[in-house]
Design a protein that fits this description.
Layout: H1 15-24, E1 31-35, H2 58-70, E2 75-79, H3 89-98, E3 102-106, H4 116-123, E4 126-130, H5 136-143, H6 149-166, E5 172-178, H7 187-196, E6 201-205, E7 235-237, H8 240-243, E8 260-263, E9 268-270, E10 282-285, H9 291-295, H10 298-305, H11 319-329, H12 332-335
């Protein structure tokens, strides 16, 4: 559990990649996000993935598994949409796991996999589940969904935990909580509830507001939770990015994109999830070219050369990593 990183400094756990990046100026990613489908049971207004019917094909996935393993990619994150809605979800988890990639899953968890929850717990390093509030109506209002979604998530999460415990798996069960108006007064209570459920961690993350900024009001009063010694090694993860989300950037180039890649469910490879669906930031499609050719191609080089970091979203998915890497360029900030 101590080797599991979710804060902005997790990049420093991959010294080999950083050394290669420093020497060659580029590197194959540490992590590749694979959007299995853009089908979803939610309609979250902040989501970068528009609801649709795309499903990443098994031919492309099998080729991708081979390529990522051959190119020293360490982690793959299966995401969506709702990845459980991919008809071959369990098989896909098995393929990446067999290739010795570390597999994480970002899921709505409101869809039951039945007995397949056991193989999920056995073959993944972590599963991240969204629960912003334990009030069912507030949850539906926030996620723009109907029915007993929260109840189903809680039932599935409980069953996944029991499967994990029976096989003594080390799979981490993490609840992602977007810090927002509906939970700003109840973060401590939510953390205590998740602890009682047997979760391994609560990951508090920023929520984009309609005006382009990020909700951070009152966040400082909860920083102590990340330092608290919780029962059973439970952790509250509060990335620094949540505290400086609305502050000006102190870097002028994006290095984070060299360490991660985002593949959409239509096969397009994007600069990052923030630019998913924007043609000007698409490097190519894995149905037409190999991932290696796309990553090493001139189109990616040209796009990055013309990227204006100051125009990227405030809550950019690479912002925390870029701020952390800035420390390497200005180490005096650490020691002086």
């Amino acid at each position: 559990m101590s080797n599991f990183h979710l804060d902005q400094y997790k990049v420093f756990a991959h010294a080999d990649k950083l050394v290669q990046l420093n020497i060659a100026g580029d590197v194959t990613p540490v992590t590749v996000y694979v959007e299995l489908t853009n089908k979803c049971t939610f309609a979250c207004p902040w989501c970068a993935v528009p609801k649709g019917k795309d499903i990443l094909g098994m031919k492309e996935i099998r080729s991708l598994v081979y390529e990522l393993a051959q190119n020293n990619i360490k982690n793959v994150v299966l995401t969506g949409g709702a990845p459980f809605l991919h008809p071959n979800f369990s098989e896909i988890v098995g393929l990446f796991n067999a290739a010795r990639l570390i597999v994480g899953v970002e899921t709505t968890c409101d869809i039951s996999l039945g007995s397949a929850f056991t193989s999920l717990a056995e073959r993944t390093a972590w599963v991240k589940i969204p629960i912003e509030t334990l009030d069912a109506q507030k949850f539906n209002d926030l996620r723009k969904c109907t029915g007993a979604r929260l109840q189903q998530i809680l039932l599935n999460t409980k069953f996944l935990k029991s499967c994990r415990d029976v096989i003594a798996s080390s799979c981490q069960l993490i609840v992602e909580v977007k810090y927002c108006e509906c939970n700003a007064e109840n973060i401590t209570e939510i953390a205590e509830a998740l602890l009682s459920m047997g979760m391994d961690a609560m990951h508090l993350v920023p929520l984009n507001l309609p005006d382009g900024k990020v909700f951070t009001r009152g966040i400082n009063r909860y920083l102590f939770l990340s330092e608290k010694k919780w029962y059973n090694n439970f952790r509250v993860l509060i990335p620094n990015s949540l505290c400086y989300a609305n502050k000006a950037r102190d870097y002028d180039k994006c290095v984070a994109h060299k360490l991660t890649s985002y593949i959409a469910s239509d096969g397009n490879v994007y600069l990052c999830k923030n630019y998913r669906g924007v043609p000007d930031y698409c490097f190519g499609n894995i149905a037409q070219y190999s991932f290696s050719d796309i990553w090493d191609g001139m189109l990616r080089t040209d796009i990055m050369r013309n990227l204006q970091v100051n125009k990227c979203p405030i809550n950019c998915c690479g912002d925390a990593t870029n701020r952390a890497l800035q420390i390497l360029e200005t180490p005096k900030q650490i020691f002086l």
